[in-house]
User: What shape does this take?
Amino acid sequence: MLMPSIFGENLFDDFFGDFDREMRRMDHRLYGKNAAREMKTDVHEHEDHYEVDIDLPGFRKEDITLELQNGYLTVTAAKGMDKDETTKKGRVIRQERYAGALQRSFYVGDALTEADIGAKLEHGVLSLNIPKKDEKKLPEKRTIMIEG
Assistant: This one.
């Protein structure tokens, strides 16, 4: 395609350059533009349990809740900025630190109770130990033969 140029440079380089750079940058991001608001999770399967590691940098133990309901384990992490922080440190000109809530659910089955699941927060990583338990098996379907 022929493009107008002056002194060997494309006239549209600067016009489209920022847009193209931003589009390429977004393509290269692993999690997209919402990466800061996602819980990056690793799940490892062992013979008798699952090991789940969730990155929650900057969250304290008090900021995190784990709930088990209807076979779903829900991890919620919430933190807000201290309102007094503005008066202590001056007026905020730019704020990039995260304030908000994250939530993610995992299906673990109906056979587990809260006591079965172990949780530990260390260096910004929440580690969960979820045992494998056999689901209650439904009675096997048996067919009765009809004579005649």
